[in-house]
Amino acid sequence: MKKSTFIGTVAAATLAAGFAAAGTLDEVKAKGFLQCGVTTGLVGFAAADANGNWDGFDVAVCRAVAAAVLGDPQAVKFTPTTGKTRFTALASGEIDLLARNTTWTFSRDVDLKFTFVGVNYYDGQGFMVPKALGVSSAKDLDTATVCIQTGTTTELNLADFFRSNNISYEPVPIETNAEAQAQYLAGACDVYTTDASGLAATRATFENPGDHVVLPEIISKEPLGPLVRHGDDQWADIARWTLNALITAEELGITSANIKEAAMSAGDNPEINRLLGTEGNLGEMLGLSADWAKNAIAAGGNYGEIFERNIGEKTAIGISRGLNAQWTNGGLLYSPPFR
Amino acid sequence: MSVITDPPQEGFRISQLLYDTRYRSMTIQIVALIGFLLAIGWLINNTLVNLAALGKPLGFGFLWEPAGYDINQRLIEYNSQMTNARAALVGVLNTLLVAVLGCITATILGVLIGVLRLSKNWLVSRLMTVYIEGFRNVPVLLWILMAMAIFIEVFPQPRDFRGEDPAATMKIFESVAITNRGVYLPGPIFNAGSGIVIAAFIASLAAIFFFGKWAKARQEQTGQILPTFWIKLAILIVPSLLIFFIMGKPIDLEIPAIKGFNFAGGIYMRNSLIALWLALSLYTAAFIAETVRSGIMAVSKGQSEAAAALGLRPGRIMNLVILPQALRVIIPPMISQYLNLTKNSSLAIAVGYMDITGTLGGITLNQTGREMECLIILMGIYLVISLTISTIMNWYNERVKLQER
């Protein structure tokens, strides 16, 4: 960990200036695959199966971008990153895109020089406790031992929350989700805190998920989204509009089932036509082929399909759409128009 | 008969720098030095230019901004509103704590194991060999993780101490709680009048020192040996104890008790500290044992035989003849073992111990994004700690090394 930080730093210092100028799109096209940073393993968001195939909600973003750029959703190489190594990996050019439930904050955007291309999951920090503890509110957690993933915004939110409520606690910083899980299950900490979606995903992997409850308090806003380096606007646009394409596709009712048909020839809805490239030249403006959005959507379906398949109510994780519903359904998902 | 003629007096010529053997090596060294400095300068300049191009010019202003995060083990006052520099200081103290504890334990264990490995008892010496080879040849990180894993899985949770018929009970007269979050020990509470007891204790320490000097001088003059150990022990305990009772027991023991989710009161040693301390000590002790063994074996057999012939008992032979000579072989490699232990303590983050690598090189680095600055400071801090340790140990080495006359 220490070593990778160091190497990353050196690499950032010596290489990054060159990378920014070269154009990430040309580079990705030249090497033939997208290098995408994901978590070290969070079921539903990004996890490798027994065969080493990555799957999940964040992974789907990587695959959609790869499909839009290269026409092949499998042309992705995944770099597992921890909360601590992710930014160095992106800044140094080790990865082209970071899709690792990363919170969009002012200082990361402005001071760390990253461009967040949108929000693919509106989240908030929550607490999980064993039912046996008999706790019903986070405000009852005085003197509790709390496991936190180090290097994340949750660390700062936690300090603020306990401070403003004048509650004492004992933080236990932990490097990865798996270690935190081990400590939590052994009772070395009373509480595990991270983004509510992460808690749901972690709980789903427990032997007895029913023995643990997520407390009602959500103590922060955590808009999670993919991000790229500052300084390459074309690449940022590609990532941004690929994500928007997935969201718009759901809004317009384009699914992986009907996309082939819809993309055959221009239909009655001009926005669908522009999106799928049967009309206009949006792909060309981005520096991509005309069917870029079609490929991106065909890769894993629209936003709603990706959500339901990986983390939706029918999966073990069982997250409802909530804030992440389309704006037409009372949620926050609102893509700018394709025009 | 030989005639000595003065060599012809010639002025210095530039070509001599290269062709005259008196100057050549110096010329080469100066050229190499200039080249080396240029290379370093280029590296630094390159880093600065590229950092500036990335929009991240070097700056240390972040050190004085609020850190924003909490640290569990604090030897000095700290809260999340204090600066990053303060958080770094908390980390430095945690590093020093585990390093000092580790060095002490590793030395005691190492000396014991090293001597036992030379034991004539077959079983004992073989067991020690197994210990040494086992610990030396497995990376210390694995020992740290293993110690932590055992801690977490084996010991009960604080919750188990609750209720009518608790699953776990406190040890040693109900005063020590061993949980998987750490060990809770009884801690002293200093009431009014405790200052006098402490003063008495410090006075006893001074008395022991002067008594030792006096006993030594007396032995050199008269040849009589006093049972100094027992007398020193008596000086250490008796006066402090007397004053403690005369003052009406001003120092109380606070027994930890379950309060909320955890034990409260007393001294709390976190599982991360214990796991790290234990693993580092056991690991380094294996190396120190080998150093001690080599030191003792370096003293020639004739020395102990000569001492025995003079009628010295085995204990005295070890103390007066063997160890003083062995120490000068033992100490120099011992310095590097202490340095290793201190540097290995940077693996603390593996078990969530908030040392300097965890605070400054971990959370601060991550939350501020100042990799270069944090790593430079971090390296500087380790350098200072290491150089201080070697200075102290070298000074000690000067004192014990063989006086050649």
From TrEMBL, chain A:
<feature type="signal peptide">
    <location>
        <begin position="1"/>
        <end position="22"/>
    </location>
</feature>
<dbReference type="GO" id="GO:0006865">
    <property type="term" value="P:amino acid transport"/>
</dbReference>
<keyword id="KW-0732">Signal</keyword>
<feature type="domain" description="Solute-binding protein family 3/N-terminal">
    <location>
        <begin position="33"/>
        <end position="262"/>
    </location>
</feature>
<comment type="similarity">
    <text>Belongs to the bacterial solute-binding protein 3 family.</text>
</comment>
<keyword id="KW-0813">Transport</keyword>
<protein>
    <submittedName>
        <fullName>Amino acid ABC transporter substrate-binding protein</fullName>
    </submittedName>
</protein>
<dbReference type="InterPro" id="IPR001638">
    <property type="entry name" value="Solute-binding_3/MltF_N"/>
</dbReference>
<dbReference type="InterPro" id="IPR051455">
    <property type="entry name" value="Bact_solute-bind_prot3"/>
</dbReference>
<dbReference type="Pfam" id="PF00497">
    <property type="entry name" value="SBP_bac_3"/>
</dbReference>
TrEMBL record, chain B:
<keyword id="KW-0813">Transport</keyword>
<feature type="transmembrane region" description="Helical">
    <location>
        <begin position="87"/>
        <end position="116"/>
    </location>
</feature>
<feature type="transmembrane region" description="Helical">
    <location>
        <begin position="267"/>
        <end position="289"/>
    </location>
</feature>
<dbReference type="GO" id="GO:0022857">
    <property type="term" value="F:transmembrane transporter activity"/>
</dbReference>
<feature type="transmembrane region" description="Helical">
    <location>
        <begin position="137"/>
        <end position="155"/>
    </location>
</feature>
<keyword id="KW-0029">Amino-acid transport</keyword>
<feature type="transmembrane region" description="Helical">
    <location>
        <begin position="26"/>
        <end position="44"/>
    </location>
</feature>
<keyword id="KW-1003">Cell membrane</keyword>
<feature type="transmembrane region" description="Helical">
    <location>
        <begin position="189"/>
        <end position="212"/>
    </location>
</feature>
<dbReference type="InterPro" id="IPR035906">
    <property type="entry name" value="MetI-like_sf"/>
</dbReference>
<dbReference type="InterPro" id="IPR010065">
    <property type="entry name" value="AA_ABC_transptr_permease_3TM"/>
</dbReference>
<dbReference type="InterPro" id="IPR043429">
    <property type="entry name" value="ArtM/GltK/GlnP/TcyL/YhdX-like"/>
</dbReference>
<feature type="transmembrane region" description="Helical">
    <location>
        <begin position="375"/>
        <end position="396"/>
    </location>
</feature>
<dbReference type="Pfam" id="PF00528">
    <property type="entry name" value="BPD_transp_1"/>
</dbReference>
<keyword id="KW-0812">Transmembrane</keyword>
<keyword id="KW-0472">Membrane</keyword>
<comment type="similarity">
    <text>Belongs to the binding-protein-dependent transport system permease family. HisMQ subfamily.</text>
</comment>
<dbReference type="InterPro" id="IPR000515">
    <property type="entry name" value="MetI-like"/>
</dbReference>
<dbReference type="GO" id="GO:0006865">
    <property type="term" value="P:amino acid transport"/>
</dbReference>
<feature type="domain" description="ABC transmembrane type-1">
    <location>
        <begin position="92"/>
        <end position="393"/>
    </location>
</feature>
<feature type="transmembrane region" description="Helical">
    <location>
        <begin position="224"/>
        <end position="247"/>
    </location>
</feature>
<dbReference type="GO" id="GO:0043190">
    <property type="term" value="C:ATP-binding cassette (ABC) transporter complex"/>
</dbReference>
